[in-house]
Write a structure and sequence with these properties.
The chain is mainly beta. It is 0% helix and 50% strand. The strands form two sheets. Strands 2, 4, 5, 6, 9, 10 and 11 form a seven-stranded mixed beta sheet that branches. A four-stranded antiparallel beta sheet has the order 1-3-8-7, with no helix packed on it. A hairpin with a 6-residue loop joins strand 5 and strand 6.
Length: 114
């Protein structure tokens, strides 16, 4: 079955960096686009970033553009989210998504605070 397992979250100060990872299994990873979403407390889930199957096409939410970078390693069945210049408003549970059909990981918590 499809499994998506996120890691790399934690507590970081404003301006800091984190790299999230999502290890995928149960499907042909190299032929699937992948996405990151996030959900802040008391807010709806929002799109963060998208990467196509070969990694040559990426898209970002305006709120993270220029600060976050999505990438993937098809040999390791892993998608990454490099987050730089973190702000308190980036605090959320970050989830990995395989679209069409949708599968979701359980998420990893990122907290940006002094």
């Amino acid at each position: 079955q499809v499994q998506l397992v996120e890691s790399g979250g934690g507590l970081v100060q404003p301006g800091g960096s984190l790299r999230l990872s999502c290890a995928a299994s149960g499907f042909t990873f190299s032929t699937s686009a992948m996405r990151w979403y996030r959900q802040a407390p008391e807010k709806e889930r929002e799109f963060v970033a998208h990467i196509n199957s070969l990694g040559g096409v990426t898209n970002y939410a305006d709120s993270v553009k220029g600060r976050f970078t999505i990438s993937r390693d098809n040999a390791r069945n892993t998608v990454y989210l490099q987050m730089n210049g973190l702000k308190p408003e980036d605090t959320a549970v970050y989830c990995c998504n395989k679209p069409l059909p949708d599968y979701w990981g359980k998420g990893t918590l990122v907290t940006v605070s002094l």
